[in-house]
């Protein structure tokens, strides 16, 4: 999912850290008061959303949504921009029949898109490593980098028919851009 990575990295220029630097790379608070207030108001949604996640294999410890805020915003923007690029390609190439992958014939192209995104974050981790990540890494553990951004995408919920209010289609979704 190169598109998600590119979108992710671009958004770092406008996240809680990148937004503090001007076009010359100098530390310069260039956002006006209204922009900054709106950004941080929307950012709090992500902080709460990630901090609501309890991790059973880490003794019920919760994610640190503030530590990982910039990466969480970037992950969410990455899937949003990648999906927009995919839909643009699909619309321009509506006459092209995408071949089904063996074993995935029962999935739509949109579902395959989201499966491919989530597959990027598949990994096995020992509980001790998960705890270390939660406490020190600016990135959430992989499964949350897959699940939470997808929960925030109405396109995902539609593609998989997730009922409103379910784990993968919560009533309250977070977004900034």
UniProtKB/TrEMBL annotation:
Single GO cellular component term: plasma membrane
Peptidase M13 C-terminal domain: residues covered: 2-175
InterPro entries attached to this UniProt entry: MetalloPept_cat_dom_sf, Peptidase_M13, Peptidase_M13_C
GO biological process assignments: protein processing
Entry coiled-coil feature ranges: none
GO molecular-function terms, A-Z: metalloendopeptidase activity
Domain of life: Eukaryota
Protein name: Peptidase M13 C-terminal domain-containing protein
